[in-house]
Amino acid sequence: MRMSNSGPKYNQKRLLGKIKKGQKREKLRRGGRSISQRLHYDSHISVNNSSNSINVFMSKILNTRWLASLHQRVYGRVFMTRKLSLAGLWTGYLIDIQGFEGEFSLELRQKENRAHGTYNVIIRDEEALLSQKGIVEGEVLQDKFDLVFVSKDKDSVKIRMEGAIRSLREKGLGIRATYSVSGKSISPFQGGIASARIIKSLPSVRIEERSKFKDV
Amino acid sequence: MKIDGRWEGKLLDMSGLVALVTARLKEKNDAITGDFSVFFLSPAGDGCGKTIKRLAQTGPVSGKIDRKTNRIQLSHKLTIEGIPGELAFVGSITEADPHAISAIYGYYEVVEGAVPLTIEGGTCLLWLYRYTQKGEN
């Protein structure tokens, strides 16, 4: 009687093959996606993720971390979707509750949720003209911002400005804000309103550490 | 702080528009009612050094005041060509001595989904002065 192990071996091979095929199917079922599924999935991500959509898309397509990283370094800034940011040159008007009216300009840079820059305010009274320059620092959370203005003059007061950034119907961004000062002081700024619109956008840059005004 | 009276001031729109605002407000049980007028200012003037005021909008306002925080909310509902719109103002009342008795300052927004207006949202500051004109409260 011819007894051979080829049958069981053959069956074992077939079984192993089935397991491997099954594993592959399981792998496909769990994590694998067809190209069309991937594209659909990735396009869904790219729509929802406003800031880094192209990079996420590329990383999914390429499925290679270093290539995606390289792409982000090279093209990240070009394809970065524009968010509501304070970075830019702003010009606008302010009115104080003391009756003073003035013009101001801001040159701001933003990295993540930190904003930093300089300001220039000119208040024209009937008899006098006040010009004040200083630095601005603060936080931006989504469309809201909270900034602190510190003048270069030692005697001046800190001005805190809270407001929001809005997309204008016409091209560009606008801000509307109210400001206040801490305590009573001899200053034309006692609290008031300010509105401005962006006149030039600036790219995001690294904010350098400063030694002065760290208490702001 | 007193709400009743004639308030005068300006609004600064984010689009760059500046307008004069007057409002006549009354308060009863922390509920505010009244009306307002907005006049756009022509930056060019009339050529003789005088500023031209152009009436842009009048209408009723209603709202409320929180006496604990001195926060004020006002709303103005309007309809243009059958499309409803709303302007919402959120601000606070504070002393404005010596310039005026008090001031209301805050921001206004055109409620989303409403009819597009000339203004896009911005800030507004109103003063209640010591003097009263004839026929005013």
Number of DSSP helical runs of chain B: 0
**Helix-strand string of chain A:** HHHHEEEEEEEE
Taking Cα atoms only, what radius of gyration of chain B do you get, to the nearest Å?
A: 15 Å
Q: What structural category do the secondary elements of chain A indicate?
A: alpha+beta
Key traits:
heterodimer, A: 216 residues, alpha+beta, 8 strands, disordered N terminus, disordered C terminus, B: mainly beta, Lipocalin, 0% helix, 63% strand, globular
Describe the structure in your own words.
The complex is a heterodimer of chains A (216) and B (137). Chain A is of the alpha+beta class and 216 residues long. Chain A is built from 4 helices and 8 strands; from the N terminus they run ααααββββββββ. In chain A, 30% of the residues lie in helices and 38% in strands. In chain A, strands 1-2-3-4-5-6-7-8 form an 8-stranded antiparallel barrel. In chain A, helix 2 (35-48) packs antiparallel against helix 3 and helix 3 packs antiparallel against helix 4 (65-79). Chain A is globular and about 40 Å long. Chain B is 0% helix and 63% strand. Chain B is built from no helices and 8 strands. In chain B, strands 1-2-3-4-5-6-7-8 form an 8-stranded antiparallel β-barrel. The relative contact order of chain B is 0.24. The chains are: A alpha+beta (216), B mainly beta (137).
Summarize the structure.
By secondary structure, chain A is α+β, with helices and mostly antiparallel strands. Chain A has helices at 6-30, 35-48, 53-62, 65-79; strands at 88-96, 101-111, 114-124, 129-141, 144-151, 159-167, 173-181, 191-201.
Topology readout:
The complex is a heterodimer of chains A (216) and B (137).
Chain A: H1 6-30, H2 35-48, H3 53-62, H4 65-79, E1 88-96, E2 101-111, E3 114-124, E4 129-141, E5 144-151, E6 159-167, E7 173-181, E8 191-201
Antiparallel strand pairs in A: 1-2, 1-8, 2-3, 3-4, 4-5, 5-6, 6-7, 7-8
Helix pairs in contact in A: 2-3, 3-4
Chain B: E1 5-13, E2 18-28, E3 31-42, E4 52-66, E5 71-80, E6 83-95, E7 102-110, E8 122-128
Antiparallel strand pairs in B: 1-2, 1-8, 2-3, 3-4, 4-5, 5-6, 6-7, 7-8
